[in-house]
């Protein structure tokens, strides 16, 4: 996020807002007026001059070693360092105040410094606070502290406690390692922002030994191109320093503090001000709105305040939004379910998707992208809430909703048809109905062990209740005009179910569809309905309508159904012939005999003459007399053999084909495909088992 002229990583801002950011302050923070304190290199030169031993440039690059040599020469370098730092008139500068203000603005202020001066504590106290101060070697736990930590000691301690020489550094980081232990825990727990350091500081070399492989450490620097930062495991955050006095740094921290201390009212007001104009181009304003779009509360202010009376301005804002990271997250499976993404998606749907002037622009932005479940639900719910007939410019959204549904079972789609007016676009209603009546593989109860093959059943995508509701309220009232389309759809969908069944169990002779349907007509035994019953009802009503109007298409479908390998379609053909008024009983009986569907016998194979007068040769007793069928049960399926057809009375068969049975049944046996009156008397199972 841009703050002024500085691009601060969002991770740093988030850590500060959560109270998980540590400000790690070096000697560079105390150089500006009125602090006027030297950095470590200048401190070494000053100490060398006081000791009468001017350091070389090589020794300046290793100040701890040089000071260690002076100590070996019995020079009290600790006292000299304390005297050089404890200068009269040295006071906190604007950078100290900015660091203290920003740290206090965080939920939990945490400051760690390698400086010996106490200017940071003084700056915090000037704000009316009393911070807790820790001084080496008495350091807190690195993963649980609050306040100011003087990692190398401070002027409030005896001078020999200061970490100055290479021996002191070795004790702090290697031998006793109290500084290393503190830093190890701190770096593993918090994000850390370094301020006032250069990559050549001796302190950074010792710190590098304490830095692990994590990537939550950052440094504010005017030398971001230097590769040493990467070697130290730090991410540089560059700031401009054209004047050479680092004045941009305290300005950044102060502006950051102002943003961090903004409350709900201030954020709401600023967002309202920004969205009342054209889309922003200033980096800080762009970054602020991008951050607001990712924030679960501030995105609500954006959605609340962003309403466009001018369609052109609304389109410019949508174009701006398409280039933002928050828009891309709407199409991410991981991020689309976040609260901020859901609010933004519903705002887009309400302001653009259902607006005729902007729907096309939004459609172009969405049509070629993946729709995660949360994005899909937002779009679908918006379509569902749209009252009345769908206008032309909204229909592509519905087709995409069908195409991009995350799963086949969607109750919103099941309810979509009943809630809309389809008078002027019946074809679109058929598209939705076709989608909801497609076959769907579902797991069913496994009766065998876990090592056996799991069992499945074939159902429809839609729920039976809503499919029935759709059929009776949308399609049945217009059946006289639309029976041809419904006949085609029902036939294809029933055939698709059978194709799925044969694909699932190619060698199975069991027909669960026909078995579960007691009668083609409405029957009390079919009160507990399956979803496919809606398709059977649709086919039945449509063929009855076509036949009542003496339309040739009805006769054509009877021909197709009668020759189908699918039992339900053959039963529908029998039902159609039964209700035909243009033929008599003799013609119906002739057709029925020609179809070879009585008594469960399949049509003869090609080139083999039909033998309607005899039961199938397979399973007959060797000494059975002609005209007498076997009554024993077969070993496979335990299905009883049928009696021969010649023993039936033709008049009784004609009556069954031409009239209804007293109980309202269609006369077609669900397993053997024969009229109920023609079913042979079955020997009770209890007698067979004796």
Care to describe what's here?
The protein is α/β, with parallel strands linked by helices and 690 residues long. It folds into three domains: 2-40 and 91-258, TPP-binding domain (Rossmann fold), CATH 3.40.50; 262-406, no CATH class; 408-604 and 633-690, no CATH class. Helix content is 47%, strand content 6%. It has 32 helices and eleven strands. It has a seven-stranded parallel sheet with strand order 5-6-4-3-7-8-9, sandwiched between helices. It is elongated and about 135 Å long.
Could you list some keywords that capture this structure?
11 strands; 6% strand; alpha/beta; disordered C terminus; Rossmann fold; 690 residues; two-stranded antiparallel sheet; seven-stranded parallel sheet; 3 domains
The global form is: elongated
Structural domains: how many: 3
Proportion of residues in β-strands: 5-15%
Number of strands: 11
Number of DSSP helical runs: 32
**Assembly type of the shown chains?**
single chain
- Unreliable residue runs: 605-690
**Arrangement of strands in the largest sheet:** 5-6-4-3-7-8-9
Largest sheet: 7 strands, parallel
Average pLDDT, rounded to a whole number, is 85
Amino- and carboxy-terminal Cα gap: 87 Å
Radius of gyration: 43 Å
Estimated helix fraction:
40-55%
Main structural class: alpha/beta
């Amino acid at each position: 996020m841009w703050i002024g002229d500085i691009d601060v990583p969002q991770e740093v801002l988030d850590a500060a807002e959560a109270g998980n950011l540590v400000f790690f302050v070096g000697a560079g923070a105390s150089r500006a007026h009125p602090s006027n304190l030297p950095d470590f290199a200048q401190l070494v030169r000053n100490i060398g001059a006081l000791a009468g031993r001017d350091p070389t440039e090589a020794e300046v690059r290793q100040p701890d070693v040089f000071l260690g040599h002076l100590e070996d020469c019995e020079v009290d370098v600790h006292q000299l360092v304390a005297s050089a730092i404890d200068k009269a008139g040295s006071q906190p500068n604007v950078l100290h105040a900015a660091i203290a203000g920003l740290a206090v603005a965080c939920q939990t202020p945490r400051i760690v410094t390698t400086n010996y001066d106490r200017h940071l504590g003084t700056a915090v106290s000037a704000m009316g606070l009393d911070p807790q101060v820790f001084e080496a070697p008495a350091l807190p736990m690195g993963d649980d502290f609050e306040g100011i930590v003087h990692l190398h000691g401070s002027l409030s301690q005896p001078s020999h406690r200061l970490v100055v020489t290479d021996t002191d550094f070795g004790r702090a980081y290697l031998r006793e390692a109290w500084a290393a232990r503190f830093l190890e825990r701190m770096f593993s727990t918090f994000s850390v922002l370094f301020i006032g350091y250069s990559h050549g500081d001796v302190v950074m070399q010792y710190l590098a030994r304490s830095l692990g492989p994590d990537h939550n450490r950052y440094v504010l620097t005017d030398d971001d191109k230097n590769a040493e930062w990467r070697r130290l495991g730090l991410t540089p955050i560059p700031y401009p320093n054209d004047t050479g006095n680092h004045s941009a740094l305290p300005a950044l921290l102060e502006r950051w503090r102002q943003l961090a201390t903004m409350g709900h009212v201030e954020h709401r007001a600023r967002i309202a001000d920004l969205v009342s104009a054209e889309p922003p181009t200033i980096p800080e304003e762009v970054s602020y709105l991008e951050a607001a779009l990712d924030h679960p509360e501030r995105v609500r202010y954006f959605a609340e305040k962003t309403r466009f009376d001018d369609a052109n301005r609304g389109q410019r804002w949508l174009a701006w939004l398409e280039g933002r990271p928050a828009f891309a997250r709407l199409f991410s499976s991981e991020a689309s379910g976040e609260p901020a993404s859901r609010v933004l998606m519903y705002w887009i749907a309400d302001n653009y998707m259902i607006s005729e002037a902007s729907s096309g622009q939004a459609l172009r932005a969405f049509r070629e992208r993946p729709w995660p479940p949360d994005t899909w639900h937002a779009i679908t719910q918006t379509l569902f809430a749209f009252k009345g007939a769908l206008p032309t410019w909204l229909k592509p959204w519905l087709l995409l909703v069908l195409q991009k549904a995350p799963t086949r079972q969607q109750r919103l789609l099941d309810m979509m048809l009943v809630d809309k007016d389809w008078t002027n676009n019946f074809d679109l209603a058929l598209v939705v109905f076709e989608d909801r009546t497609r076959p769907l593989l579902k797991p069913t109860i496994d009766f065998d062990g876990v090592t056996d093959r799991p069992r499945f059943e074939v159902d429809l995508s839609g729920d039976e209740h809503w499919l029935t509701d759709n059929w009776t309220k949308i399609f049945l009232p217009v059946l006289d005009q639309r029976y041809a389309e419904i006949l085609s759809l029902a036939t294809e969908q029933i055939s698709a179910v059978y194709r799925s069944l044969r694909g699932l169990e190619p060698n199975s002779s069991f027909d669960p569809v026909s078995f579960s349907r007691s009668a083609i007509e409405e029957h009390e035994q079919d009160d507990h309905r399956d979803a496919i019953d809606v398709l059977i009802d649709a086919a039945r009503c449509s063929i009855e309508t076509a036949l009542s109007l003496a339309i040739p298409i009805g006769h054509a479908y009877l021909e197709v159904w009668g020759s189908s390998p699918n039992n339900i379609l053959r039963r529908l053909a029998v039902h159609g012939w039964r209700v035909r008024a243009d033929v008599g009983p003799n013609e119906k009986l002739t057709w029925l005999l020609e179809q070879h569907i009585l008594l469960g016998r399949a049509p003869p194979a090609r080139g083999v003459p039909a033998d309607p007068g005899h039961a199938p040769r397979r399973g007959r007793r060797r000494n059975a007399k002609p005209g007498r069928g076997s009554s024993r049960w077969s070993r496979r399926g335990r299905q009883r053999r049928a009696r021969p057809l010649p023993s039936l009375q033709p008049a009784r068969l004609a009556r069954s084909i031409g009239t209804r049975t007293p109980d309202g049944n269609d006369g077609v046996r669900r397993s053997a495909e024969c009229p109920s009156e023609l079913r042979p008397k079955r020997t009770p199972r209890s007698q067979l088992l004796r």
